[in-house]
């Protein structure tokens, strides 16, 4: 079982671990095809670009650029070796739940538990120690595509069942009801269920709804907080959201609906009047409309803006603009989700990190 969707055609960049990566992809039900460089045709039929561990920097850069141009998501594994890739192993201390016995029914009458784990922004090193331990103890992992996907896949190679419940923007969506059902049904079979989420479960993560579904079904549930992309993305880009003497407020806004939508719950007038830092998530598509609204309602067009894509992963990219140029910059540079946008004077001071 894999996060890579069964039947998806995956463009595989060449490198020392390409053959291993191709085998893994086939095991996961995907169809790997070899990357042919810049001359590769358009994205028809291609669902993912995979950059295996050890891929040469120039090949990876070419592939990233190709993927960006064609709007195809990238699974960049540089720095995440596919060690221990073949074969499922029993997890010490959990007899009967993994390995050869995986899939066997647990004794009736025992109830498992659900653990909501905030996985952080993507770098496997940015999950908490408690979160990593929970993954080690999991019989079943329900995972999103954001967050430390490689850790979930490692747990699957050790024998945990991995279920892909990603909600991909403007693409395939697993309904929240189905996710709730999977958590409850698996816990009722006595399993330890880890619901692995990107960032923190309670920041635009529907974590509370999942807790309610568990408690309504009488399933024990706990939460392990995660490092939210709201703070991790700016930090990874060397950007401090607050500066002494510069700002005393910090606001997080979801930009998944445009400001003029009747569905918007954001007080855009208030946002425009604030002088501190504004952080937008899920705002790539509506960045231009949001910037125009903020300027229209009083925020200075010269206010610095910084966009951080794929924060904490090898494909992280940082793009600078002003509020006035944000929409055009996002468009012309081909910014893609996931991205965090920081607006405010604090965004004008980005440190050069090594
Ligand atoms: C559904 S929200 C989930 C937020 C998550 N619960 C958190 O605390 O980070 C998804 C949005 O988070 C942001 N995001 C998550 N991971 C990111 C990353 N590695 N780099 C940039 N933005 C990220 C993007 O704005 C993305 O559209």
From TrEMBL:
Source species, domain of life: Bacteria
Keyword check for Methyltransferase: yes
Enzyme Commission code: 2.1.1.107
InterPro entries noted in UniProt: 4pyrrol_Mease, 4pyrrol_Methylase_sf, 4pyrrole_Mease_sub1, 4pyrrole_Mease_sub2, CobA/CysG_C, Siro_Cobalamin_biosynth
GO molecular function, one term: uroporphyrin-III C-methyltransferase activity
Tetrapyrrole methylase domain ranges (all copies): 114-326
Keyword annotations of the record: Methyltransferase, Porphyrin biosynthesis, S-adenosyl-L-methionine, Transferase
Spans annotated as Disordered: 73-112
GO BP term (any one): siroheme biosynthetic process
NCBIfam families linked to this entry: cobA_cysG_Cterm (TIGR01469), PRK06136.1 (NF004790)
Protein name (record): uroporphyrinogen-III C-methyltransferase
């Amino acid at each position: 079982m894999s996060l890579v969707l069964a039947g998806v055609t995956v463009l595989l960049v060449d490198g020392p671990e390409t053959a291993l990566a191709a085998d893994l992809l086939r095991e996961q039900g995907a169809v790997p095809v070899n990357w042919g460089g810049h001359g590769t045709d358009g994205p028809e039929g291609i669902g993912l670009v995979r950059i295996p561990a050890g891929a040469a920097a120039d090949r990876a850069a070419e592939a990233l650029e190709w993927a960006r141009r064609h709007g195809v998501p990238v699974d960049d594994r540089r720095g995440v070796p596919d060690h221990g890739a073949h074969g499922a192993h029993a997890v010490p201390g959990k007899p009967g739940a993994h390995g050869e016995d995986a899939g066997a029914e647990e004794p009736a009458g025992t109830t498992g538990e659900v653990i909501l784990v905030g996985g952080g922004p993507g770098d496997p090193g940015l999950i908490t120690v408690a979160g990593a331990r929970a993954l080690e103890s999991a019989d079943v992992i329900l995972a999103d595509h954001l967050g430390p996907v490689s850790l979930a896949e490692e747990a699957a190679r050790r024998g945990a069942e991995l279920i892909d419940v990603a909600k991909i923007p403007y693409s395939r969506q697993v309904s929240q009801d189905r996710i709730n059902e999977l958590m409850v049904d698996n816990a009722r079979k006595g399993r330890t269920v880890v619901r692995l989420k990107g960032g923190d479960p309670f920041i635009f993560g529907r974590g509370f709804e999942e807790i309610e579904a568990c408690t309504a079904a009488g399933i024990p549930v706990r939460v392990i907080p995660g490092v939210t992309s709201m703070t991790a993305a700016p930090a990874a880009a060397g950007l401090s959201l607050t500066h002494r003497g510069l700002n005393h407020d910090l606001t997080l806004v979801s930009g998944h609906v445009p400001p003029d939508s009747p569905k918007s719950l954001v007080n855009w007038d208030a946002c425009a009047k604030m002088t501190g830092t504004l952080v937008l998530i899920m705002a790539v598509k509506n960045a231009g409309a949001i910037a125009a609204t903020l300027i229209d309602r009083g925020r200075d067009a010269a206010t610095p803006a910084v966009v951080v894509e794929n924060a904490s992963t090898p494909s992280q990219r940082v793009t600078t603009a002003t509020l006035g140029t944000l929409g055009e910059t996002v468009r012309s540079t081909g910014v893609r989700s996931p991205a965090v946008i920081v607006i405010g004077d604090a965004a004008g001071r980005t440190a050069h990190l090594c």
